[in-house]
Write a structure and sequence with these properties.
Belongs to the peptidase S28 family. The protein is 42% helix and 10% strand. It has 508 residues and is an alpha/beta fold. It has a domain of 222 residues: Alpha/Beta hydrolase fold, catalytic domain (Rossmann fold, 3-Layer(aba) Sandwich). The relative contact order is 0.15. Bound molecules: 2-acetamido-2-deoxy-beta-D-glucopyranose (5 copies).
Length: 508
């Protein structure tokens, strides 16, 4: 694509000054590294959750702000959700199921992680959903505004601090409940899955095993090719329909050249029914790119309200719309019909908003500007997106400009490993499940092969982003039922082994 848009930092900056707190996340993809993990980081977002579907008690815990220094910082209130209804109790060593809260309001994750709730009665387990620091209600310095003020106040938003929070919380909770001997099993999806896997590696004395679903622990530095994410999204469309794939691939040039015409932006604004006039054609391209990416992540076999309300097999639906438009309909109209499946499935949208994150700055952008540097590019020959190369320098400039912070792209692999992950884990790690669905664009950065007998990969060809953690439904295909059954069996094995060892010690 000769005239595909160039990375336009100035565009981002101008948007920033225009909207003051405009988030770079979606608007900047794909020219910027995509940050699709940040979708839930709508900080103080209460969201349209409705009444919780699971029963829990909400508690708060005074948490240390900096676990790695003895500086005199104020503590903060960490929120956690707890259910002890099914728990066998300390005497019978009832297990503790612990979901590693990720980048967002913990109630949202609790509502979307039905698997843990369904499993707990069977294992007579306690359930705990702790919130990740700097998200939801778990704000240092008393409020979102104070916590997100500047690089100094944000400094303690790191994965290591979050893991230490979990470790301290579990340890103290066990002490309070005299539950020292109760085994802890970790769960997590996406970034939460990364945390679960890392927690098992860093704190093996605290948790006996981890189910890490859709956890791209290898999406760092050059461990996997930077184009995997968009190549997988593109593959998801291609497998449904080549003409759909081609229509999307051809649309970028059309959008770009339309944007350069007189009144072109007005035309694009009308065609795509935006509430306010487009500032640039890139904004439209980014809006579309992010829809395609989320469609790939949420490409579930049944209707769901995960990222947005979507039909079952949503990419199939999008492609059906694009392909079935009457002859003579323009590429842009086809694209509009297709993307409406994502942005207007409920049919209740009057006009579209470009900036779909009204809460401004979000924590994931900070994390992406510090530790979570996940290189992304778009390949010329496989991707349906405009081709672009990963440019670390431009990301770094963006971070310095917006957060006054310089990323440390090699820190995560230094801290948690990545290069030679398999060999390292084979000889010292155990009891981790990496579960993935190959339709999920993040699967390319995860672990797709068994590392050892106890660090195993459960891969489904037709799964999407942590589908296995969702509540079971009557429409679950066999392969999903089997994947979950395999997970249950492995977790049973860990618990069995733990109890056996305890018994041996006891008998001695
Ligand atoms: C950040 O904000 C805090 C709290 O208001 C203030 O004490 C500190 O000096 C600020 N730091 C920077 C680098 O601006
Ligand atoms: C443990 O109990 C103490 C004293 O009641 C309480 O302050 C603390 O929050 C409890 N810890 C947890 C993790 O709930
Ligand atoms: C959303 O869908 C409804 C129902 O099909 C339609 O009336 C409405 O115009 C659509 N909104 C936009 C912005 O396209
Ligand atoms: C895509 O391009 C790369 C580098 O230009 C090349 O190595 C690779 O074989 C190509 N793949 C396909 C499917 O054409
Ligand atoms: C990467 O971005 C920097 C900063 O925006 C720019 O100066 C440089 O030319 C870019 N490199 C490439 C290869 O495009």
């Amino acid at each position: 694509m000769a005239n595909s848009p160039k990375p336009t930092l100035s565009l981002l900056i101008s948007l920033l000054s225009l909207l003051s707190l405009f988030p770079p996340t979606l608007s900047s993809a794909p020219k910027h590294a995509p940050r699709f993990l940040g979708k839930f980081s709508r900080s103080n977002n209460k969201g349209p959750l409705g009444a919780p579907r699971y029963k829990y008690e909400t508690r708060y815990f005074d948490q240390t702000l900096d676990h790695f220094s003895f500086s005199d910082l104020p503590t903060f209130r960490q929120r956690y959700l707890i259910n002890t209804e099914y728990w066998a109790g300390p005497d019978r060593r009832g297990p503790i199921f612990f979901y590693c809260g990720n980048e967002g309001d913990i109630e949202w994750f609790a509502a979307n992680t039905g698997f843990v709730w369904e499993l707990a009665p069977r294992f007579q387990a306690m359930i705990i959903f702790p919130e990740h620091r700097y998200y939801g209600e778990s704000m240092p310095y008393g409020s979102f505004e104070e916590a997100y003020k500047n690089a100094t106040t944000l400094a303690h938003l790191t994965a290591e601090q979050a893991l230490a929070d979990f470790a301290v919380l579990i340890t103290e909770l066990k002490r309070n409940l005299s539950a020292h001997a109760c085994p802890v099993v970790l769960f997590g999806g996406s970034y939460g899955g990364m945390l679960a896997a890392w927690m098992r590696l860093k704190y093996p004395h605290i948790a006996i095993g981890a189910l890490a679903s859709s956890a791209p622990v290898l999406q760092f530095e050059d461990i996997v090719p930077p184009e995997t994410f968009y190549d997988i999204v593109s593959h998801d469309f291609r497998r449904e329909s080549i003409s759909c794939f081609n229509t999307i691939k051809d649309s970028w040039d059309v959008i770009e050249s339309e944007g350069q015409k007189n009144n072109g932006l007005s035309y694009l604004t009308e065609t795509f029914r935006f509430c306010r006039k487009l500032e640039s054609a890139d904004d439209l391209s980014n809006w579309l790119s992010s829809a395609y990416s989320y469609l790939a992540m949420g490409n579930y076999p049944y209707p769901a309200d995960f990222l947005m309300p979507m039909p079952g097999n949503p990419i199939k639906e999008v492609c059906r719309k694009i392909d079935n438009c009457p002859d003579g309909m323009s590429i842009l109209q086809r694209i509009f019909e297709g993307v409406s499946v994502y942005y207007n499935y409920t049919g209740t949208v009057d006009c579209f908003n470009l900036d779909d994150d009204p809460h401004g700055m979000n924590g994931w952008n900070w994390q992406a500007c510090t530790e979570m540097v996940m290189p992304t590019s778009s390949s010329k020959n496989i991707s349906m997106f405009p081709a672009y190369d990963y440019n670390y320098t431009s990301d770094e400039e963006w971070c310095l400009e917006n957060y006054h912070v310089k990323p440390r792209p090699t820190w995560i692999t230094t801290q948690f490993g990545g290069h030679g992950f398999k060999n390292a884990l084979k000889s010292f790690g155990s009891n981790i499940i990496f579960s993935n669905g190959l339709l999920d664009p993040w699967s390319g950065g995860s672990v797709l092969e068994d590392i050892s007998e106890t660090i195993v990969a459960l891969v489904t060809e037709n799964g999407a982003h942590h589908l296995d953690l969702r509540p079971s439904t009557a429409e679950d295909p066999d392969w999903l039922v089997e994947q979950r059954a395999a997970e249950v069996k492995l977790i049973q094995g860990w618990l069995h082994q733990y109890f056996e060892k305890k018994k041996t010690v006891f008998d001695m």
